[in-house]
Design brief:
Layout (H helix, E strand, L loop, with lengths): L1 H15 L22 H12 L8 E3 H17 L10 H14 L1 H20 L4 H14 L4 E8 L6 E8 L14 H20 L4 H20 L6 E4 L3 H4 L5 H7 L6 E4 L2 H12 L3 H16 L9 H11 L7 H12 L1 H12 L2 H24 L5 H13 L1 E4 L19 H18 L17 E4 L4 E4 L14 H17 L8 H12 L2 E3 L2 E2 L2 H25 L4 H13 L3 E3 L3 H6 L5 H9 L3 H7 L20
Parallel strand pairs: 3-5, 6-8
Antiparallel strand pairs: 1-11, 2-3, 4-5, 7-8, 9-10
Helix pairs in contact: 3-15, 4-15, 4-18, 5-12, 5-18, 6-12, 7-8, 7-12, 7-13, 8-12, 16-17, 16-19, 16-21, 19-21, 19-22, 20-21, 21-24, 22-25
């Protein structure tokens, strides 16, 4: 212990040697930040103190809080089966679907009503060609077995293409069927027990369960070994000749799709399947198809749902599966009805007036960008005209789903028929997916339940989701604050479409400014790496300021609210990590705020900042991108 105390005694001796207690000076307490010394910290100090960085997190921000809020709102929506609370067609449909899933008194009878016709179709198989026809019929009913048709982007052209994807294994990973690892083999045992339970539910007598389960799994074992082939393709017109047993051309045409070429995600799988169907053992294939149908419908089986498979997946991928019926319904909606959930969330969160208000702000920012283009000295008449054409074509998707709610017109749910509802939903979703094959563009998979404000360059579109239209982004109370937060964020995204038009000299000046800002351990912000977002932040603030002043002449309080709202959206903690700090494409939050506001002339006027104060720049020092 004495060794540990020696430094303490040494310090004490030096203090006493000074001759007075007053000589033992404590470190000076730094003065609290002010708007003119550190605007970011002066605005966000209370939030930073009240929201410490979680011990296990690398960062925590106002955007994290917004995501947490949106997640709670989504969970509340998923728990609500009351259509009376619905604000629109999507939320009414969602409420009906949820209510049907929560009606546990009818789940068994509802599942039987939906599944029995599918099992009867399988029982009617008499010869080999009946198998491919049954596979197509099951797919049309909403139950893919063996494979399914998906629409994917062509990796070369970006255009949609029709792809047949294997979907033949109850254990998704084919290596589970071949591994000799004892733990994996244990999982296989659980899966075999689960498969037998499903066949029992389908009506297979107890004495036949073991044999039929083994027969079905023999098919899965053979198909698992064929899952390692490469992509192939076939002309749709030749697909039936190339695969006479599978009749792939007929299968695709029955879905309503008619692509010129059909891509096979795994050519070897389809070759193997074709050979297996050439001389099939009918009872074996019937057992396999029954098992696959029940696997697909298992979440809708009510109290007959077998937890053996849930336990299996728990062990295989350490993921907790839903145990209660409410959890199962929520999980199904998240997986199979994302568009419906997205639209319902937007209806629940945003009134029409609120959406129109946000959309009007977006149009005000578009107009501000137009004025900025007009006064840009670096652009000649031809480049200005081209920029205006691009701006006129810009699509603003604010607070509404990218697809109109009319896409749900073909959907109708029965509150007492959960399984039938799910099959109808699957058919509807597949029809929408296949429609992409002839769509003029490829929509982004953006959910209104996720806070997002972004620019989609390929579509020349700014997207603002309903989940983002909440405090601190959109308070809906103070218009000036909304322009400082939401308006500036929309402005920065709009400006990203025109960053190539900015003059090099101004970008160099902005780079020099940000390059002087410290990060950690003597390192400064990397101006080259952060240039795009530094300029977008400043541009967004400039455009929002112009848009606000174009609406009316803001008073001192409104101007203060504008700048304060901009600072507030960036509040965040970061764990000190030099490598990530200097390699990030974003400057630290403090500099994103201070580095942008200091370049607007009115900032210093609003907060009475004087020369030599950190947040003051003279007109000659300020960088102006679009003002």
């Amino acid at each position: 212990m004495s060794l540990n105390l020696r430094p303490l005694f040494a310090i004490l001796a030096l203090t006493l040697a000074s001759g007075s207690v007053s000589a033992a000076k404590k470190p000076a307490t730094p003065a609290p930040p002010t708007p003119c010394s550190d605007f970011y910290s002066s605005v966000n100090g209370e939030w930073l103190r009240g929201n410490p960085l979680p011990a296990t997190a690398a960062s925590y921000s106002r955007w994290n809080q917004l995501n947490e809020l949106a997640d709670r709102q989504t969970r509340q929506l998923l728990a609500d089966g009351d259509a009376q609370n619905a604000r629109g067609p999507a939320s009414r449909l969602l409420a009906e679907l949820i209510a049907s899933g929560l009606d546990e008194t009818n789940l068994d009878s509802a599942s039987r009503a939906a599944i029995d016709p599918l099992l009867a179709r399988i029982a009617g198989i008499k010869k080999g060609k009946d198998i491919s026809a049954t596979v197509a019929a099951l797919y049309q009913a909403g139950v893919p077995v063996l494979f399914q048709l998906k629409v994917q982007r062509d990796p070369g052209t970006g255009r949609p293409r029709a792809v047949l994807v294997p979907d033949a294994l109850g254990l998704g990973d084919p290596t589970f069927y071949m591994s000799g690892d004892p733990a994996v083999q244990e999982i296989g045992g659980i899966y075999r027990a689960y498969s037998a339970d499903l066949l029992r539910y389908s009506g297979v007598p107890g004495k036949q369960l073991a044999a039929q389960s083994a027969a079905a799994l023999t098919i899965e074992d053979a198909l698992a070994k064929a899952m390692f082939g490469s992509e192939a393709s076939v002309e749709l017109a030749q697909a039936d000749k190339s695969f006479p047993q599978l009749q792939l051309g007929a299968f695709v045409r029955q879905t309503g799709a008619a692509p010129e070429r059909l891509v096979l995600a795994n050519g070897e799988f389809f070759k193997t399947l074709e050979k297996m169907l050439a001389k099939p053992a009918i009872p074996q294939w019937q057992a396999y198809l029954r098992m696959r149908v029940l696997q697909s419908m298992a979440p809708m089986l009510g109290k007959d749902y077998r937890l053996a498979y849930a336990n299996l997946v728990d062990q295989a991928i350490a993921k907790r599966l839903p145990r209660t019926q409410g959890e199962r319904v929520s999980a199904l909606v998240l997986e199979q009805a994302p568009d419906l959930l997205s639209a319902a969330y937007a209806e629940r969160q945003m009134s029409d007036n609120e959406v129109r208000s946000a959309e009007a702000m977006g149009e005000a920012l578009r107009a501000a960008m137009g004025r900025a283009i007009d006064r840009a000295p670096q652009l000649d008449a031809e480049r200005k005209a081209a920029a205006h054409r691009q701006l006129a074509a810009l699509r603003l998707a604010i607070g509404r789903p990218l697809q109109p709610t009319t896409i749900f017109d073909g959907l109708a749910f029965d509150r007492s028929q959960y399984a039938t509802n799910v099959l109808m939903l699957r058919r509807w979703a597949k029809a929408r997916e296949l429609a992409l094959l002839t769509a003029p563009d490829w929509p982004s998979p953006v959910s209104q339940t996720q806070p997002l404000i972004g620019f989609e360059a390929s579509q020349n579109r700014v997207i603002v989701t309903a989940a983002a239209l909440q405090a601190p982004v959109f308070g809906r109370v103070n218009p000036a604050a909304d322009y400082g937060a939401l308006g500036a964020l929309i402005g920065r995204e709009i400006s990203l479409g025109y960053d190539s038009l900015l003059p090099g000299a101004k970008l160099q000046a902005l780079a020099a400014q940000y390059g002087s800002y410290p990060v950690a351990n003597g390192m400064n912000v990397n101006p080259a790496l952060t240039q795009l977002h530094n300029s977008a932040d400043l541009a967004g603030l400039e455009l929002a300021w112009d848009a606000l002043n174009a609406q009316s002449t803001p008073d001192w309080a409104a101007k203060k609210a504008f700048f304060t709202a901009w600072a507030g959206v960036w509040a965040r903690h970061d764990r000190e990590n030099l490598a990530s700090a200097v390699q990030s494409p974003f400057a630290p939050a403090k500099w994103r705020v201070n580095g942008s506001v200091v370049n607007l002339p009115d900032f210093a006027k609003v907060f009475s900042c004087k020369a030599k104060q950190p947040m003051f720049k003279s007109a000659a020092q300020q960088v102006a991108l679009w003002r």
